[in-house]
User: Which sequence fits this backbone?
RNA sequence: GGAGAGCUGGCAGAGUGGUCGAUUGCGACGGUCUUGAAAACCGUUGACUGUAACAGGUCCGGGGGUUCGAAUCCCUCGCUCUCCGCCA
């Protein structure tokens, strides 16, 4: 959620940004400014009246204390009339506030100046490419066949236990999951991230804080009895750790990492997108979250990109980094880099990480603030990124590193897993 | 799941209808004293909103109610603690 300040002070920038993001209803900006104007007027009237009432009530108290009951009684009658007006004003004010809030949460974040214009994934900008493309012969198998051949993953069994998109990993398959999680967490904590274990269900307030509610309600599993949501990413609990907190300069930057399963309903997906490990309802992910000062957030974003890139390099996978165009970016992001790895056997790029700067879009809603060196309270910037989502990494490891005698794992995984799956 | 007790400023802890946004202690910050430190003494010390700056408004777990007036009374939800039950 953007700050009102921006609408009032930088209307032109807001309009330009919304256009780049292909936001359909720019009139909303004028409506926000007008509603805010009205809200302020009501607030002023309401508070002036409240001040009078407060003073009168205090007066009554004093008169009662002094034993002047008659005078107190006549004041009471006077106040009773004003109360009606106060109530009505307050109600109007509340309505205006609610309306304003509803308008403002429907406006997406503004894109950073470096975000390319565009409407679809084709308009994303390839920043750079790395790793070596594997030379596979025509008999190369997709990961779902390899998973069956080496008995790593049982999709059918998952269907029996739960439904599609909930695979069962076993033997070397289960071991590989554990190895990857451990390796990723070690890599992150060595870079100064603090490791967390967080709840896999969150309440409404947390889901709202990171922006899953109200927009993406249908994408989360909902435990209605207790009104909890299964997390679609550990970004939700991690970022909410600092909801409603005021940080000191010395506590910054906050760097957190966590492994959790992620749960997504993925309503509307079908076809080759959901084949094998490409898209699941439950999958494992190691996440990074940072909170920084506004001045350093873009440096931090670049550092996070380097960090994730380094991880991909140690896995010896061909990858590319994209800067998402305005139309392909998420509602909450100001600048997003997507990481894709190339699946040789499927001959397609698969997204394995998304690293974003949200600026103050999330922290404004969650009231995550700090005191700067001059003692002034300011909103922090929040950033996050995956490092990494497991299923597609597993898919690409299997496909790209397959050889006649088995799957040869990258050296980084040897301490956790051994050298070969056969 | 059942019964009871609680939730107040960074922390501890008073306050049970009216000059209470809140006594006091600790902590923190500044000062006096000291070569420096400690001790002692003096002072400062919540957030949000609003203003050019004052003023004003809101906040005593969340929400609602009673009242001219609520930290204080009532309802409701959440959380913590104690006991019972169940349990990895």
Assistant:
């Amino acid at each position: 959620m953007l700050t009102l300040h921006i609408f009032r002070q930088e209307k032109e920038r807001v309009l330009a940004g919304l256009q780049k993001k292909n936001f359909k209803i720019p009139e909303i900006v004028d409506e926000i400014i007008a509603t805010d104007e009205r809200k302020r007027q009501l607030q002023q009237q309401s508070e002036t009246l409240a001040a009078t009432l407060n003073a009168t009530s205090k007066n009554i108290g004093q008169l009662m204390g002094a034993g002047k009951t008659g005078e107190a009684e006549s004041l009471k009658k006077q106040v009773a009339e004003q109360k009606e007006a106060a109530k009505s004003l307050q109600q109007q004010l509340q309505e205006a506030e609610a309306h304003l809030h509803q308008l403002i949460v429907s406006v997406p974040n503004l894109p950073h100046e470096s975000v390319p214009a565009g409407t679809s994934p084709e308009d994303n900008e390839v920043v750079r490419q790395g790793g070596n493309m594997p030379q596979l012969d025509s008999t190369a198998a997709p990961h779902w066949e390899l998973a069956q051949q080496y008995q790593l993953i049982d999709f059918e069994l998952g269907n029996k236990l739960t439904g599609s998109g909930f695979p069962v990993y076993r033997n070397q398959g289960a071991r590989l999951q554990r190895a990857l999680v451990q390796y990723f967490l070690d890599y992150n904590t060595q870079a100064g991230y603090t490791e967390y274990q967080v709840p896999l269900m969150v309440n409404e307030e947390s889901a709202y804080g990171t922006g899953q509610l109200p927009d993406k309600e249908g994408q989360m599993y909902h435990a209605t009895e207790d009104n909890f949501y299964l997390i679609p990413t550990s970004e939700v609990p991690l970022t909410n750790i600092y909801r409603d907190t005021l940080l000191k300069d010395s506590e910054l930057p906050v760097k957190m990492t966590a492994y959790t399963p992620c749960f997504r309903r993925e309503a509307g997906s079908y076809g080759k997108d959901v084949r094998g490990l490409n898209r699941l309802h439950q999958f494992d992910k190691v996440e990074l979250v940072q909170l920084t000062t506004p001045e350093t957030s873009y440096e931090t974003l670049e550092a996070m990109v380097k960090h994730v890139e380094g991880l991909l390099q140690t896995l010896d996978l061909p990858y590319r980094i994209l800067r998402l165009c305005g139309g392909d970016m998420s509602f909450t992001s100001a600048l997003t880099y997507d990481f894709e790895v190339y699946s040789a056997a499927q001959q397609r790029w698969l997204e394995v990480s998304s690293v974003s700067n949200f600026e103050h879009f999330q922290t404004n809603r969650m009231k995550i603030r700090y005191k700067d060196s001059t003692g002034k309270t300011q909103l922090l910037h929040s950033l996050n990124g995956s490092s990494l989502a497991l299923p597609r990494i597993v898919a690409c490891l299997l496909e790209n590193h397959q050889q006649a005698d088995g799957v040869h794992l990258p050296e980084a995984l040897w301490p956790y897993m051994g050298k070969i799956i056969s």
About this structure: Residues 40, 43-44, 46-48, 50-51, 53-54, 56-62, 64-65, 72-73, 75-80, 82-83, 203, 246, 367, 377 of chain A lie near RNA strand B (CB under 10 Å from a C1'). The CA atoms of residues 206 and 218 of chain A lie 16 Å apart.
